[in-house]
Design a protein that fits this description.
With 453 residues, the chain is α+β, with helices and mostly antiparallel strands. The chain is built from 5 helices and 24 strands. The strands form 5 sheets. Strands 1, 4, 7, 8, 11, 12, 16, 19, 22 and 24 form a 10-stranded mixed sheet that branches. Strands 14, 15, 17, 18, 20 and 23 form a 6-stranded antiparallel sheet that branches.
Length: 453
């Protein structure tokens, strides 16, 4: 009798499981939690995505497109090889989540009961990715529709911050008003000097050919056309906007950056015209610590050698290896964030650590770089780096016809500022204890410290 009851119970459980598996997936119960976790940060009003996934009414028309995007793994964009590290900001979907969205679309995309819906996410207001405590207005810049050779040189514009007391900032977002023409905007924190001229653009007119490419003899001041006084006294780039990378949040690592009273902000501006006259009015937003943090967040950007002898991508080469960028750490640090940057021929980038005992460790591999989605990778757990460790970053480029973004596979491509030229900039951030001098953390072994993206 007990055996019969047990068999009957198993049959009931099996029938219930089969019924649950065949039950239609609904938006409120099954799909909305996935969208809240992985998609709504971009798919909401004021963000980069062209459609909102906040509600059933706005998401339902895109059900079939959502299925295709997740099955092909086009969305959400995420390019880190998962075999090396885990990241706090990972966007990729699990196989079960992909199956749920596909099942929902195939089943007619039903809404389901409102009672099954999780509470709405309290997203930052006015389209911010962070909800800033302080907002500083950047310079207003006219971007012409058709400049000479379609080139607008990088500009550096200093603005007052308006911050009158020492402030520990815990996150930062650089926000253009016209992302369609914004290649990048980076910012420096510069101690105020009496000779500063606010809102005055500074740039270097580099000699260029009729196609806009910089001539080989046009090294410019400091090799990049950057007047020495523009960012003098700063610690280098503190943060950037590029497509796909909007903000950096230091709170996940219990750290902050010190913004000293009366510090000025230098905006490094790079625009790519799109055939329309537009005016960009960027802003920078900060969140502020309520108390002094125990750890300090320090950002770095390094570059491979950029001279024409070292960096010249041959025509029709599908896998050209860049010379590496290499630094050595002069003190113990904890690595927390990495951000690869290349242009449209960029193919892959790998960050490796070489420890003092000779052991090597790959900490980030981006095998399929995408210029249109330049992502920062925030480590779920910091990687402790002892003094004497080297960070070696390598990259490859596709200058062949197989690269659909390649402007001209028949040209040799040199290092340069414009999108049709190339770069190799691996950015990274570390956290250190209070009292450690951030200017003495690294030593360049090969390449140079970067001055922009």
């Amino acid at each position: 009798m007990n055996v019969r009851l047990r068999i009957a119970g198993l049959l009931v459980l099996g029938t219930a499981a089969a019924a649950a598996d065949s039950a239609p997936a609904t938006f409120n119960k099954d799909v909305l939690p996935i969208l809240q976790k992985n998609c709504q940060s971009c798919h909401r009003p004021g963000q980069v995505a062209p459609m909102s996934f906040l509600t059933y009414d706005t998401a339902r028309p895109w059900a079939k497109a959502m299925k295709v995007a997740v099955l092909t793994k086009k969305m959400p964009p995420w390019f880190a090889d998962p075999q090396f590290q885990h990241f706090a900001n990972e966007r990729s979907l699990k196989p079960g989540e992909i199956e749920t969205i596909a099942k929902w679309a195939d089943g007619g995309a039903p809404e389901g009961s409102p009672k099954d819906a999780p509470p709405a996410v309290n997203w930052p207001k006015d389209g911010w990715e962070i909800q800033p405590d302080i907002v500083v207005n950047g310079p207003e810049t006219k971007v012409p529709a058709h400049p000479k050779n379609n080139v607008i040189e990088w500009m550096y514009v200093t603005v007052p911050s308006g911050v009158t007391q020492d402030t520990w900032i815990t996150s930062m977002q650089v926000r253009p008003s016209e992302p369609s023409v914004t290649h990048h905007i980076c910012v420096y924190f510069k101690p105020h000097t009496d000779d500063v001229e606010y809102n005055k653009p500074v740039w270097y007119d580099r000699p260029r050919d009729e196609n806009g490419a910089a001539l080989a003899t046009a090294a410019g001041i400091n090799g990049r056309g950057l007047p020495p006084s523009t960012t003098a006294g700063s610690n280098g780039i503190e943060g950037c906007y590029v497509p796909g990378q909007l903000s950096q949040d230091y709170r996940t690592h219990g750290a902050a950056k010190l913004f000293k009273a009366s510090t000025d902000i230098v905006f490094q501006l790079h625009y790519t015209p799109n055939g329309k006259d537009v005016i960009d009015r960027p802003q920078i937003g900060f969140t502020v610590a309520k108390e002094r943090p125990k750890r300090v967040y320090v950002s770095f950007g390094i570059s491979s050698p950029s001279d024409a002898k070292s960096f010249a991508i041959p025509p029709n080469d599908p896998n050209w290896a860049s010379p590496p960028a290499e630094v050595q750490f002069k003190q113990d640090v904890d690595l927390v964030w990495m951000f690869p940057h290349m242009h449209v021929r960029g193919k892959d980038m790998t960050y490796r650590l070489v420890y003092p005992d000779g052991k090597t460790e790959t900490i980030l591999n981006v095998p399929h770089y995408d210029f249109n989605w330049q992502l920062g990778y925030d480590l779920a757990q910091p990687v402790h780096i002892p003094k004497g460790t080297k960070l070696v970053v390598t990259a490859h480029y596709d200058n062949s016809v197989n690269n659909k973004f390649n402007p001209d596979p028949n040209k040799t491509v040199y290092y340069g500022d414009m999108t049709w030229e190339e770069m190799m900039f691996p950015f990274f951030s570390v956290v250190v204890d209070q009292g450690v001098d951030p200017r003495g953390l690294i030593q360049i072994v090969r390449g140079r410290q970067s001055d922009g993206a």
